[in-house]
Each structure stands twice: as C-alpha cells, then as structure tokens.
Amino acid sequence: MSAVVEQDDFHRRRSMDQRECDLAVRKHELFVNNRPGGQRANFSYRNLTGLNLACKNLAEADFTGAIMVECDLSGSDLQRAMLFCVNLTKAKLVRANLTRADMRGAVLKGADLTAAEMFNADLREGAIFTKRLASDLENVATSADPTDLSRARMVNANLTQANMSGSVAAMADFTDAILKGANLAKANLKNATFEGADLEGADLSRADMRGAVLRNANLYGATMVAADRTGCDETGALTDQPRGKPMSMLKESLHILVRDHGAWIESGGAKGRALDISGFDLRDISWPEHALLTSLKAKDACVANARFDGTWLQASLFEGADLRGASFKSADLRGANLKGANLVRAVFEGCNLAPLVVASGRSLTARFDAAVLRHAKFQHCQLTKVSFANADLRWISMTECDMADADFTGAIGAPPSVAARPPG
After folding, report:
1. Mean pLDDT over residues 137-158, rounded?
2. How big is the CA angle at 348 (ends 344 and 351), to the nearest 5 degrees?
3. 250 CB neighbour count, 10 Å cutoff
C-alpha cells in the first residue's frame, strides 16, 4: 500500500510550532462536533517534533508522513486517524484511542502505548512515493522498514483484531496486552515480551518468535504454523493442549458430579460424594447457577474462563489453579482458598468473601496469598479480613468493597487507599 506526494512537499516538511498546532486542533474539534468554523486538521508531511497534543479530539485527522518524534498524544482520541508512514519514535500514546487508525508503515520505535485502545488498527507495511513527473513515480519511502514497533511499550494495550502482519516488534513489551484475533503473520517478534498477554485466536504463522517471552500467555486457538519459537519461554502458557487431565477422564458427566456433590454437602457426607477436580482441565465451563459447590476441591486445576456466577463455593480449594478470565459474580466464596491462583482479569462482582464460621466456632478467612490478580475486578464485594498477602494486584479494580481488616502485606500494586495496610 502507498501514498503519493509531490517531491517538494516530501522534502520540505515545514516545522509546526505549538501555537499553530493548537489552532489547528481547535478548528478540528469544531469540525468533529459539526460546529461553525470547523476544519479537518491536516498535519500531513509537517514536522511536529516534541509538540503536546495530549487529551485532544483528533479523530479522523490526517498525519500522513508527519514527523512526530517525542510528541505527547496521551489520552487523545485518534479513532480512524490517518497515521500512514508517520514517525512516532519515542512518542507518548498512553491510553490513546487508536481504534481503526491507519498506521501502515508507521515508525513507533520506543513509543509508549501503555493501555492504548487499538482495536482493528491497521499496522501493516506502507510506503510513500514522491511524484516527479505525471508519469514518473520514484519509491522513496520514509522508512525502508515495515511498521516498526521495536522496543515499544504496549503493556495493557488492546490490539484485538489489529492487523500487524509483517510488522517489526522486536523487543517490544506486550505484557498483559489483548491481541485476540490479531494478525501477526510473518511479524518479527524476536525477544518480545508477551507475559500474560491474550493471544486467543491470533495468527502467528511464520512469525519470528525467537527468544520471545510467553509466560502465562493465552495461546488458545492461536495459529502458529511455521512460526520460529526457538528459545521461547512458554511457562504456564494456555494452549490447545490440555493442562492436566482432560474432561473425558471424569467418572461421570459434570452435571451428575455436581448433583452428587450437592447431595454429599446437604447430607453431611451420608449421601452422594465429594467433587474433586484437582489437576483437571475444565476450561470455559459454565457451572450451573446457584450450584452447591461448598468444599469443592480444584487444586492446580485449569478452569480458565469458567463461569461460577451465583454458585456456593464456601471453603472451596482453588490453590494454584488457573482461573484467568473466570467470573464469580454473586458467588459465595467465604473461607475459600485461592492461594497462588492465576486470576488475571477474573471478575468478582457482588461476591461474599467474608470469614466463614465453622461448626467448632472457628472462622476461615478467604485467602489470595501470592495469587496473580492483575486486572481483576472487585465490585460491591465483602472482603472483610481477606488475605491478599504478597499477591500481584497491579491494575486491579476495587470499587465499593468492604475491606475492613483485609491484609495487603507485601502485595504488589495494591490500590492507593489500602497499599501496604496491615490487618487490624
């Protein structure tokens, strides 16, 4: 794909100062809002190096071939913007909205795209041609390389269905990024970090992934035909291969096992039998709502993306389990043991995690010790005396929760209001 520009315009690249830039942005915001005096911003082939465009509405603006080295575009709306062959080396695009932006051939070396929204963005290769004569086109691309994301910071970025085929992202950091259905075919991903990233259904065929870090990444349904994975670290990665014993090894159907477990609980062990799925791979299961799963044993089980909404899970054992993306809405988790569990992006809404009083008069507290809870959501939860000791709580959301006497000792990234707060 390419764009055509007159040779004089290509070489001129007139610099734009902050005042001129601000005026163009104001007119563009009027244009976007259909207000009088509005005019679509055209920054094409201009030099905007170091300018501040943070938190601006630049949707559908034209930046074709612009030089924007070290520009600050943090929090800006760049939906459907034309960023064709733009030079954004070391630019700040933190939390920028780049949905469906045309970024073909862009240079993003060392750029910070932390938490950027890049759904369906086009990051394929691109080139600009200069036009000397009406019948003469000479290829003088602004960069000889395809879209270049080398050493870019893409932590928590949403690249769902983004097209990055043939792009260069060597040593880029995609930690916890969402790349569901993304096209990374033939991409250069050497020594890139995808720790905890969601690559479900992504196309990585023929990609150069030598030395890439894929620890705890979700590769379920990903296409990796002819990809070079020499030296990859895939520890804890979720793939199409079973993580433990397959569901076919269960003695009965899950429905019958859940029914029998309920009978075992209600009869105090006189009827039915206890349910133990420790070490099994039961990912993507929707458990019966309001199912009686008290004292369920699921140690080291893979129950990723499972739905436990409305279930009774008092005193359940999920120690070391893979529960990434699981939903526990309105579940009763009093006294549950989730030590060391992978709970990345798990949802706890309306959950009861208060202490569970047992027959002897003792109480069991819910425990998330050393659990990984990055991006997990707790809303309207009862978290009294819950232990989050040494847990990974980076980017966690805790809203309208009762956290009286909760233990956050040694936790990483605890919310500011509770960080390093000991119990009592």
Report:
1. 75
2. 150
3. 15
